[in-house]
Amino acid sequence: MESKRQQKMASLLQQELAQVLQRDLPHLFGGGLVPSISAVNVTPDLAVARVYLSLLLGNDAAERVAIIREHTKEIRFALGKRIRKQARVVPELNFFHDDSAAYAAHMDQVLSKLDIPPAPPEDEDGEADQPERPRLFN
């Protein structure tokens, strides 16, 4: 369970990192789509932040995350300039690919392929025809 302090720092980092990647350092992506930040988790001492990037388009997610990891110092420096009034120390940034959107699309596809039989018809009084269950107590 995250403390309020961790949640506030994670929210601040998520907003400011998005601004850094979109406005300050878009050249890192070679004119391609800038990844969105789906989540940020901060350790209790606020020293390390795990940043989850959502890379929706393209199959080169591993390459794009590797590029971001190579430029972590540059990203952290730009982030530090933006949050210097709100945070005493800029946390160490660890970037990870968030594939939850792809997983959700896969699960949606799996569920759409299921053959689910229709529900049994209902009687006039609104109850479905079901076999009578044995009574446990009289």
TrEMBL record:
<comment type="similarity">
    <text>Belongs to the RbfA family.</text>
</comment>
<dbReference type="Pfam" id="PF02033">
    <property type="entry name" value="RBFA"/>
</dbReference>
<feature type="region of interest" description="Disordered">
    <location>
        <begin position="113"/>
        <end position="138"/>
    </location>
</feature>
<keyword id="KW-0963">Cytoplasm</keyword>
<dbReference type="InterPro" id="IPR023799">
    <property type="entry name" value="RbfA_dom_sf"/>
</dbReference>
<dbReference type="InterPro" id="IPR000238">
    <property type="entry name" value="RbfA"/>
</dbReference>
<comment type="subunit">
    <text>Monomer. Binds 30S ribosomal subunits, but not 50S ribosomal subunits or 70S ribosomes.</text>
</comment>
<comment type="function">
    <text>One of several proteins that assist in the late maturation steps of the functional core of the 30S ribosomal subunit. Associates with free 30S ribosomal subunits (but not with 30S subunits that are part of 70S ribosomes or polysomes). Required for efficient processing of 16S rRNA. May interact with the 5'-terminal helix region of 16S rRNA.</text>
</comment>
<keyword id="KW-0690">Ribosome biogenesis</keyword>
<dbReference type="InterPro" id="IPR015946">
    <property type="entry name" value="KH_dom-like_a/b"/>
</dbReference>
<protein>
    <recommendedName>
        <fullName>Ribosome-binding factor A</fullName>
    </recommendedName>
</protein>
